[in-house]
Records
---
Amino acid sequence: MKYLPPLNYIRSFEASARHLSFTKAAEELRMTQAAVSGHVRALEQFIGRPLFYRAPRSLTLTEVASAYLPALQRALAQIDVATGQVQTVRHRKEVTIACPASLATNWLPSRLKVFKAENPDVEVTVHATIWAEATEQIVDLRIIPRHVNQPLVGDSLGEEKLAMVCCPDFLSGPDAMKVPADVQHKGLIHILGRQELWEAFARHHGIPNLPLVQGLKTDSSNVALEMAIAGLGCAVTLASLAEVHLRRGSLAEPFPGDIASGWGYDLRPGELSPTRASERLKQVLLRHHLPDLN
């Protein structure tokens, strides 16, 4: 783009040309008359042509100014519209977030409750995704699963711990679980594709002969949790997914331990321009990141 005159020069000339008065232009622009007059003279020097015929008590546009003025007024109007559109986006009172379905079901609602309490006038839309699946929706924020060996993109919501959970009834009565090895007597619930979860539990608690193949199987963490609630066995899952059930008392974690899952979540900006609402939600999620269930 070629070198352009400063916008203040343009604004001072346009206002002076409309009013045919440096004094009235100065009042409109909240400048001194000397400043406006100085801007116009500087613009005249920049283009190398006079813009006004100056009389002791009046101004008259030169032919050059008469031809120049309409184009400048259209340009200023476009700048005004564009600026208004940017301000509208910035003040947009809605936020859209894409989040893995299990996390959106079990972890996100309590954070949205905090956000809505602080921002009751902001509308929120949640797009639930299947694991690392990308959505076609255009959103403000995205929560993306990330293995700890992968580089961080955006802000980290923390690294997941594992939680072995079961229905509270398993902890009472003559057959109550007393030690971690007792899980084999209650049955294991496996999440297909995530066999390493039970392996990590067995390794952490030193259980060499845990039957890592036998038991109920499902391809959904949420289904595994519901099976555990129903008393069909014990499940190892990401702590963020078990959090809400532990708080409600529908599940218990009898043998809590600091077992790393190897996974975490990134909070990344989406495709939409940042707004105050999206920045506020981002800060809430960062404050209330992955749970500490110990």
---
Amino acid sequence: MAHKRNRRKIFKKGLPPESLVYTGHREDTPANVVSVSYTEAAFEEIQGYVAPRLEERKGVLWTDVRGLTDTKLIEKVGMDHGIHALALEDVLDTQQRAKLEEFDNGLFFIVHNLKIDCVALELHSEQIALFAGKNFLVSFQEDPDDTFAVVRKRVGDGIGRLRRKGSDYLAYAIIDLVVDSYYSVLDDLEAQELELENDLHQNGAAHTTKARMFALKRTANEFRHRLLPLREAVTRLHRTESDLIDDSNRLYFRDLVDHVAQILDGIDNQREMLANLEALYQAEAANRLNNVMRLLTVISTIFIPLTFIVGIYGMNFDYMPELRWHYGYFIVLGVMFCLMIGMLIYFRRKRWI
């Protein structure tokens, strides 16, 4: 997957700015558009792209582009809505960090929809770009699935404030939906860490436990890496002086900042927990090594006097005491056996074994 992203990235080398090249790895997914227009009293949803007449529009027009493989379609949507070519370039460059950019006719926001694969312990990222202008919003999703179905249903059913608010509140609702999904990722990470902790206590420092621990640590670090720029972006969105943000909606953007900060605190707590589990793993591995060394030391200690006796009677002298005894061989074996048993009993009482 990473190889494909790098290969697509090379295609942009040497091209001038504002070149529209899709750099993601979802080349086989077709692009489609859903157009939603609504006022406080009416709602309409059309499967397909509807060219806007922004100067005549009342209410809000929401153009949802799903899939980024059709660069011609994205270029047309951008031209019809007056989206700057640099913003469209960032839409197609799916390795962008979360950010907010202000243009004369709108606000451009990038956020990543994150999901965790609990089997492979990998974090899957889908880039979502929003361009909010006066009475319109264009959303660009990297995947063709219906990520914003909940928001669209709220608009259609007239639930909440969406139908009474402008495009800035619609942008808030979409970003809030993505941020709320991070809590599920956080819960999945915590569940995996608890499972890893139980496995570590039951099975000790196994190799599979070590591999899973480092995979989980890598996923947590990547999750935090994705959210750090998002905190800056939502803070700028809350504090922007753009006329497109209604003052009555700033309270909601401030709440969004609090949610991101809360999730970052949760990630830091889990990273600390992973560090503790790693220390526990190292202690278990060291304890296992100590047990092995102790067993080898006991065996070596037992054989030291036995080797001494064998070494003495292995010397080639003719005149040695007890050398001509008829039962000397059996007596020496018996002495060696009793010495070994005595040392084992002594070590056992000392709790060395």
